[in-house]
Write a structure and sequence with these properties.
By secondary structure, this protein is of the alpha+beta class. The structure holds adenosine-5'-diphosphate (ADP) and magnesium ion.
Length: 394
């Protein structure tokens, strides 16, 4: 999609497009990546742990300041030309289409008291949209970083991510957690980001797949089942009910060793089997993040595979956010010899990840594609997730 490939000339191409659109060279070009989450799913609204890595796919934005309050945004990937807004009169939830993502960032910065006036923005992205790979966060973070640099706001990557999340939550109106924006802003090449979503403390965990002869495949199922939004709110509410009944601020506060006792208490308090299953998912998933980190720190990357598959079973059976296509990726990939696989992102479609020996990667991808064909599904899009750098000036 769009004009931005993965080559080093993307910055120049986007700058040239900017010049053609707005009649002058941009003040600068910035980039922010999409992400996949290795482990730690549906934990970020439970104050838990997540472990995303940045993809090489990224949003690239050419940006110049303006002296007035005119905000002009243009995407190489969306027909319809330049969208013009008033930076000083932005209205949350006013449905400005895709432009709400960059505009929401301007709004969030101004709401936080930062002196941001108008801007001309042209962007292009290679992050597949709506595939659970955070194309929206890439758009927000690239805008936030560009404005931070140009207006010399002095905000750090974490602060920019939080503002970008605010843009998506309160301006666009999507109740997402903070993982996507933090991943796009903070990830480092060759690493996964261990993030505590309660206090946003973080650590870069070495994740050099190539050095271990491994590959992590992303399988974009290209389906997005409609129940996604309501189901997300329902899972969130169920998890909050579990935490309330257990008398803790969030399910993150239940240690893994206390899970059986917590489940007994939920049953005694009359909480439904659903709330108990959601609780079990969150507590075991947080524990899986800790297990994966211990393995990566010990250099035992292969042993991560079965934990991914275990995580998938929990998302499928306890949280019930998977779907037939995602389940088929996991069963077909593991049957073909993959070390492990799981859905990644919110669920109900989108993408899965598969950990494979590098030399069996093509055969595994072929098996998954054949399984999709046999089931009558459209061919998935499969590509390697190479742990890449977070947002940066181009
Ligand atoms: P995801 O973040 O998983 O890709 P979302 O639904 O959160 O999915 O965000 C997708 C939306 O982000 C698109 O519908 C569009 O509004 C916006 N978007 C993403 N990439 C671009 C782009 N290159 N140009 C314009 N808008 C984009
Ligand atoms: Mg998104």
């Amino acid at each position: 999609m769009g004009a931005a490939g993965d080559g080093g000339d993307v910055t120049a191409a986007v700058a040239e497009q900017f010049q053609r659109l707005y009649g002058a060279a941009p003040e600068g070009v910035w980039a922010a990546p999409g992400r996949v989450n290795l482990i730690g799913e549906h934990t970020d609204y439970n104050d838990g742990f997540v472990m995303p890595l940045a993809l090489p796919h990224r949003a690239v934005a050419a940006v110049s300041r303006r002296k007035d309050h005119v905000l002009r945004v243009h995407s190489a990937d969306i027909p319809g030309g330049i969208v013009q807004l008033d930076a000083a009169a932005l209205v949350p939830l006013s449905d400005t289409g895709w432009a709400a993502y960059p505009a929401g960032v301007v709004w969030a910065l101004r709401e936080a008291g930062h002196e941001v006036a108008g801007a001309d923005i042209h962007l292009a992205s290679t992050v597949p949209t709506g595939a659970g790979l955070s194309s929206s966060a890439a758009l927000e973070v690239v805008t936030a970083l560009a404005l931070n640099d140009l207006y010399e706001l002095g905000l750090n990557a974490t602060e920019l991510a939080v503002l970008a999340q605010r843009a998506e939550n309160d301006f666009v109106g999507v109740p997402c957690g903070v993982m996507d924006q933090m991943a796009s802003a903070c990830c480092a090449e060759g690493h996964a980001l261990h993030l505590d979503t309660r206090d946003l403390t973080q650590r870069q965990v070495p994740f050099d797949l190539a050095a271990h002869g491994l590959r992590l495949l992303v399988v974009d199922t290209r389906v997005k089942h409609e129940l996604g939004d309501g189901a997300y709110a329902e899972r969130r509410a169920g998890c909050e009910a579990g935490a309330r009944a257990l008398g803790v601020p969030a399910l993150r506060d239940i240690p893994y060793g206390e899970l059986p006792a917590a489940l007994d208490r939920l049953a005694a308090a009359g909480e439904s089997g659903t709330v108990r299953a959601y609780t079990r998912h969150v507590v075991t998933e947080n524990h899986r993040v800790e297990r994966v980190i211990a393995l990566l720190d010990a250099g035992d990357v292969r042993a991560v595979g079965p934990i991914l598959t275990e995580g998938h079973a929990s998302l499928r059976d306890d949280l019930r956010v998977s779907c037939a296509e995602l389940d088929l990726v996991v069963t077909s990939a593991t049957a073909a010899g993959a070390l492990g696989a799981r859905m990644t992102g919110g669920g109900f479609g989108g993408s899965a990840i598969v950990l494979v020996e590098a030399d069996t990667s093509d055969a595994t991808a072929k098996s998954v594609t054949e399984a999709f064909a046999a089931a009558g599904y459209a061919a998935p899009r499969i590509f390697p997730a190479i742990p890449s750098r977070g947002a940066h000036r181009g």
